[in-house]
Design goal:
single chain; alpha/beta; 297 residues; globular
């Protein structure tokens, strides 16, 4: 029987975690749920301990970030001799017997590195808005045409899908030297992983007719100025650590992006981007080198 470790990183998840875990029901595969808690200050851990005694909890006592917490979950999965890991967001609702069908797709093609279900909105009447934005004729060839003509394929390659529900074989992660890079704390780690995946000649796919709800419609308010600035910092690391481009090509792309920031009046952001590959060259090269080794940084 296939063994899957389901890794859920939690942070103040009392609103979601009961529904998230209770919705996971699989009868044909051996699943083990691992919760890595990033220092929740609410009742998240109390809810899990009271209602789900079979769930393994790693209480980090502090916020390690999304990438580092998932890396802990991955190490637990390896120690348990799991065949696959399934990264699942705390704010998701699953459907019964989902993973067995996803494993069939993942195993059907040796080029598939990451498989994801379709992400629905809260009530399931539409695709999750962000997920829908990932799908275009360029990023997900044939999907729109096939759906329009009612001739759906078992899976579709896609350029990017966020790591709210990723199924990956442990063997693939081992070949890539590890799961998420420490260059990213929260956001950007999934994009970096997929760029490394492409370097190793594997693809990310979405699977029609298999679904998960991603409950984020009720979140409100604009991103803070601090977060907007952090997005710029994440973007620069994403660009410069993409090993599918050589260093000089990455610098050219970054400088084009810097020019756009300066043109739109973000002088501080533009100069931050311009200085990054000069002042942090050694660090960038160290990360890039590690991504083709047996142990990533």
């Amino acid at each position: 029987m296939k063994k899957v470790s389901i890794i859920i990183v939690t942070y103040n998840a009392e609103k979601y975690i009961y529904d998230c875990i209770s919705s996971i029901r699989e009868s044909t595969i051996d699943i083990h749920i691992i919760v890595i808690d990033n220092g929740s200050q609410d009742k998240t851990l109390d809810i899990i301990r009271t209602n789900f005694t079979n769930v393994e909890i790693v209480d980090s006592k502090k916020n390690l970030g999304f990438g580092a917490a998932n890396n802990i979950g991955y190490e637990v999965a390896v120690a348990r001799s799991s065949d696959y890991i399934y990264l699942l967001n705390q704010d998701t609702i699953s459907y019964p017997e989902t993973l067995g069908r996803m494993i069939e797709i993942l195993d059907s093609n040796k080029n598939i590195g990451v498989a994801s279900p379709m992400h629905l909105n809260d009530d399931g009447k539409k695709l999750d808005k962000k997920f829908e934005e990932y799908i275009s004729a360029g990023s997900c060839p044939e999907y729109i045409s096939d759906i329009s003509l009612n001739q759906v394929s078992p899976f579709y390659e896609i350029g990017f899908v966020n790591a709210a529900a990723w199924l990956i074989s442990v063997e693939t992660v081992k070949k890539m030297g590890g799961l998420f890079s420490s260059a990213f704390f929260h956001y950007g780690e999934d994009s970096n992983f997929l760029s490394r995946l492409r370097y190793f000649k594997k693809i990310c796919v979405i699977i029609p007719n298999i679904y998960v709800h991603h409950l984020r419609e009720k979140r409100s308010g604009k991103m803070s100025a601090t977060f907007e600035k952090r997005k710029l910092s994440i973007k620069k690391v994403e660009i410069m650590t993409n090993i599918n481009r050589d260093y000089k090509s990455a610098v050219k792309i970054l400088y084009k992006y810097a020019g756009q920031q300066i043109f739109y009046g973000n002088l501080n952001g533009g100069f931050e981007l311009l200085l990054y590959p000069i002042t942090r060259r050694a660090e960038i090269l160290k990360y890039r080198s590690s991504y083709t080794s047996s142990k990533i940084l």
